[in-house]
Amino acid sequence: MSHRHQPSVAAAAAAPQGSAASASAAAAAAAASQSPSIPPSLEDLCVRLLTSRGLRDLAGPTAAGCGRISFYPRVPYLCPAVADKLLNSLAAGGKLTDPLLGAFTPDRCGLQCVQLENAEDLSLESLKVLKRHRLLRLTCVRLEQVNLYSLVSCLSDASKQQMVSFNLAGTSILCDKLPVIVCLSVFRSLASLNLANTELDCKCLEVICNDLRHLVHLDISKTDVVDIWPLRRMRHRLKYLHLYGVKPKQASRFLTVLSELENLVLLDISDDTSLARFGKPQVQQQVRELFSSPNFLPRLEHLDVSGNKLKLDVGLLRQFVLARPSLKFLGFAMVDEQLSGEPELPVEIAGFDTEDQLIRCLHRYRDRENYMQQTLCAVFLHTNHMFNLRERLLRATFPVLRKYSHRMQLQLAGTAVLYNLTRYQLSFKLCPAVRNTVVDLVLNAMGNFPKQQQLQKNACSPCATIASCIRPSSIGCGACRSCATVLCSSATSTWCACWWPS
């Protein structure tokens, strides 16, 4: 069997730009995924069931018709804890529509923490129902039919006075081609603001720093900001700062501002590998001086420098980490330096050197397509000569391959990884659920890219290996029938027959 096909990831070298994501959200997801599995509560199971059925057990068309939906009279008033879960679960599953949102009226439920994260098509008219609630937190990610100005008009005066968190990532802040960031000045209690992937510029940043006096958490990743000098006005209170993909015009000025933010707990200055923010020798010297200073970010708990060419001496980096006992996480992916040869550092590291580092990358950077492309290539290289089971690593790739099911380059790298992690006799050691997931992923990849020959070869390998070593009953007849159909009808069926004549 030594002549088996070895998949290639050469075509996966070119990666598209990734989208910005909140590092704190990624950190929470990573922590949850690495902790021991906790069974969901009965309430969570009920919410999951109800939202999977589109709330048709609780709500239906009104007597007046006109496409409106309301909760049935037999449904009791929903407290904010339950109503928030139902609404946010509908949005996350892509099932929230204008009529369903209109059913959440204040006489039937209370809303406080609304998260519209997968509801791009909601109209301005349906969002006006929020004006009748007193919100504390609002997340509106990538809404296509509204902008900041129209969204603020959908909120009550009470919400504007008491809201502490506002997430507008990917939602336009332009009105008539001009930014209207002054609208945020009415949110006097705002402590957390996310404007990642918006048209925010330096003038808008200055307005934010002047008007929002309680802000401690700011995300301006992937924006048009080229100078963060206004942040100096918040240097005594700012604790969480995300600057992923921000391209400073003057790197030395950028570093000077960071050195003055003495109370920072989280700092994300990660970047894409195509950008070299700290490439000049004099800037690299400034970086080394800052990292050797004990007064530089003394309270830091989370630091992400992934994708930056810092040219840091590993010993200096180790000294920086040990001098900050509060530091818990270090993002160190897609950099030139390696930490694998060093004594183990007392922090969680997301990088490309060890299996644990790769798993953290797959969890924390899941929303960054470019990072996932590079991480899967690193996983392939890391497992190329391994012949023992790596189930944690295998499971960590599943959400990534589902999320980017229509990205050919990423699927090419992902199917090569699945081959490495299920080849030879490794499939015997996998539980049926994991085997079934692998089969589903490779069949989806083959169906989405039927004319990509290399991907077909990569996908056929784990699919046929699993099919040859298990009983049909262990993964279900449907999966086996689909597997056989795709393998037999694939453009590479002749190639498969040469390897698995049986």
From TrEMBL:
Keywords: Ubl conjugation pathway. It comes from Macrostomum lignano. It holds the Pfam family LRR_Zer-1. The keyword Ribonucleoprotein does not apply. It comes from the Eukaryota. One of its GO terms (cellular component) is Cul2-RING ubiquitin ligase complex. This is Uncharacterized protein. Residues 208-311 form the Zer-1-like leucine-rich repeats region domain. PANTHER family: PTHR12904, ZYG-11 FAMILY MEMBER B, CELL CYCLE REGULATOR (PTHR12904:SF22). The keyword Glycoprotein does not apply. Residues 404-460 form the Protein zer-1 homolog-like C-terminal domain. InterPro entries: LRR_dom_sf (IPR032675), LRR_Zer-1 (IPR056845), ZER1-like_C (IPR055142), Zyg-11_UBL_adapter (IPR051341).
